[in-house]
User: What shape does this take?
Amino acid sequence: MNPRNEASLSKPDILGTAMLDFINGRPYENIETRTSVAGLDVLPVPYLFRAFDEMPELERKALRMANGSVLDIGCGSGSHALWLQEKGLEVKAIDISPGAIETCRIRSVKNTEVQDIWKLEGETFDTLLMLMNGMGICGKLEKLPDLLKKLKSLLKPEGQILADSSDLIYMFEDEDSESLPSDHYYGEVQFETRYKDLRSDPFPWLYVDYHNLALHANHAGFSCELIGQGEHYDYLARLTIQ
Assistant: This one.
């Protein structure tokens, strides 16, 4: 379970530091992640630099569907932006991790900047790309309407949002219904990350199931289409303005 851009939401810049170690040939270690629902896990740094053929099928499908001007939100090392750039698309890659943006520049992503999606204004795009659980940046289900409103302001009238997420109900599928959290939506988790001697404070992340995403999208004036489903309760959705 790895949230999109998790180190960008925490201090220090854990993902950015790890990526710069890797790309500059310095010794690196796995990034450790700990969540309130899954305990300890690891994120191998090379995975952040995967080529198109190494990406999950839903990621590849989303990249193939991208068109026009693209905003890659939470771009990380720039792997998605690079593939789209090579296909001739106009791509802007943003991340609030300075290390991620420096990595993108080293890898020759043409248009990239340190930018918070909540603060981006005055631009619109044909495709907003939110992969690796990109919707999770809102942290809680109750804040999803605010995120959708913000994304709508960045979208051209005929544009699209391509986003993937996971339904964490599988974490409870072998339990009875009383095991589901009673005080919050079960897809709201707390993350902590660690890299070498760097450790983040806990921060919230949202994994929204497709039903709830579609419900909130419709309320926000979007049509929501289920494009595909993976093997582990993950899915790809496409949102367009109604």
The helical segments are 14-23, 57-65, 79-86, 98-106, 144-153, 210-219. The CA atoms of residues 64 and 84 lie 8 Å apart.
